[in-house]
Write a structure and sequence with these properties.
Elements: E1 3-17, E2 23-38, E3 42-46, H1 53-60, E4 68-73, H2 75-78, H3 92-100, E5 102-105, H4 109-112, H5 119-129, H6 136-146, H7 163-174, E6 181-185, H8 193-210, E7 213-218, H9 221-227, E8 230-235, E9 238-244, H10 245-250, H11 255-262, E10 274-277, E11 284-286, H12 300-309, E12 315-318, H13 319-322, E13 329-332, E14 335-337
Parallel strand pairs: 3-7, 3-8, 5-6, 6-7, 10-12
Antiparallel strand pairs: 1-2, 1-4, 2-11, 8-9, 9-14, 13-14
Helix pairs in contact: 5-6, 5-7, 6-7, 7-8
């Protein structure tokens, strides 16, 4: 396995201040994430809203500085031209060169495109910023043709396109500097199902053509199963399970992973459903130790929800049971989960 990126104990904590500006708590958006991204493959990151997926992407791009931990770059990225392999130690000029090698596709294509710019200017913007202005027009046309658009679209504005076409423009712009990695932050969640399939097939074709590495962030497990070679499940800033996609879907170990998989829409009417009871706990960790710990005992709200479904043959897990921090253990070759060993 050839690694292109490695995340080592990556943490990002946002301070919560009181009225006097004193830190009283921390939001642990990332809390000790360890991942290895394999070159030329698609690595999926899945979890519910607020679990830390997008913060992980922003920290990976150093759009926000990590609180601690490291993003370690391979020689494929550095080319032995950087002073350090640790992302957080790069100079501003090295960081600029690093960002040439990572393209980003955002969730909302309309929000990612300047409504006052023509498509030719939007797609050529990365080239102009990095001084690659030779034959810009022909390069922009080539990029648009790669994503199924053409020269006739150069002098149009974003509002003149459908959602799927706008996402194609975002992908074309992300490819402008010939990156080695594409970070895809829920690239199909704002699109119709039929358009989703077109975009996913386009991404697969581009990966084969340019030998790209994808980091695919989503909450849609059916999309993740179709696209990803390997997958990490996140909950409250931590990776709770990591495995090859086929292994994780066929043999989930963590109760949260099992609940997520059971919630995937299916034509199988006999498929077992697992309900997650209770409210999502706050990610705020108070500096006052008397308030610091997340509740690991069952709450009154969870007791009420359990009593409402008792006797109906419904499997469930409660949120409070997920709050206990259990070390990541190896289940089998390449399969890790936060579960108690028997």
């Amino acid at each position: 396995m050839k690694e292109i990126l490695k995340l080592k104990n990556l943490k990002k904590h946002f301070p919560v201040k009181n009225s006097w500006g004193t830190d009283v708590a921390l939001v642990k958006a990332l809390d000790g994430v360890d991942l290895k991204i394999e070159s030329g493959k698609t690595f999926g990151i899945v979890g519910e809203s607020g679990c830390g997926k997008t913060t992980l992407m922003r920290t990976l791009l150093r759009l926000v500085e990590p609180t601690s931990g490291s993003v370690i770059l391979s020689e494929e990225i550095t080319g032995n031209n950087f002073s350090s392999k640790n992302l957080e130690e790069l100079t501003s000029e090295e960081l600029r060169n690093f960002r040439k090698q990572i393209g980003v596709v955002f969730q909302d294509p309309m929000g990612a495109l300047n409504p006052r710019m023509l498509i030719k200017d939007i797609v050529s913007e990365p080239l102009v910023i990095h001084g690659k202005t030779d034959n810009v027009r022909s390069r922009v046309i080539e990029l648009l043709e790669n994503v199924g658009l053409g020269e006739e679209h150069l002098y149009r504005y974003p509002h003149e396109f459908s959602g799927g076409q706008r996402q194609r423009i975002v992908i074309a712009r992300a490819l402008a500097l010939d990156p080695k990695i594409l970070v895809l932050d829920e690239p199909t969640s704002a699109l119709d199902v039929s358009v989703q399939a077109q975009i996913l097939n386009l991404l697969n074709d581009l990966q084969k053509k340019y030998d790209l590495t994808y980091i695919f962030i989503s909450h849609d497990l059916s999309v993740i199963e179709y696209m990803c070679d390997r997958l990490a499940v996140m909950y409250l800033g931590r990776v709770v399970e990591e495995a090859d996609t086929d292994e994780l879907f066929s043999n989930p170990q963590h109760p949260y992973t099992k609940a997520l998989l059971s919630a995937t829409p299916s034509f199988d009417k006999n498929k077992d459903k697992i309900m997650i009871l209770g409210d999502v706990p706050s990610p705020i960790n108070y500096l006052d130790e008397s308030k610091a710990k997340l509740a690991t005992e069952i709450t009154e709200q969870e007791k009420l929800e359990i009593s409402a479904i008792e006797g109906k043959g419904i499997d469930y897990i409660v949120r409070s049971s997920l709050n206990e921090v259990i070390p990541l253990v190896q289940i089998s070759d390449g399969h890790y989960a936060r579960v108690r060993q028997q």
